[in-house]
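Consider the subject:
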Amino acid sequence: MNHSANIDHHAVLRARVALLGSGKPSVRERVAAYRVLAQVSPLAYLPLLSAALWKYSRYEFAHQPEIALALRAESVAAARRMCALEPGRSDLLLTALANHRELLILLDRQEELRAVEEEITRAAADER
């Protein structure tokens, strides 16, 4: 089966229009667009998605830590996918993990924090 058969071409077009429109899209709109576009152009959009998810969690959900934590976990997942496609991009993963770690510390989620810190150690060692 053709890979393009699984893609909603209308959603891709809407996402591109949202990003290229006359006004600057909100972080929420950028996240939505990058989620769609990362499916068709992961090398181009996964780094943008990872960064936008962090901004979205920080600025839109600062008072809703569980939602912010889920968004930061999604940011880490996007960075992991990017590293799988392009192993030299551990900087993106390290940044996403550090941002995730920051919120885990604030929420006192010790078990998850240990796992993230171990992954940071591994990713830093891989970067060298």
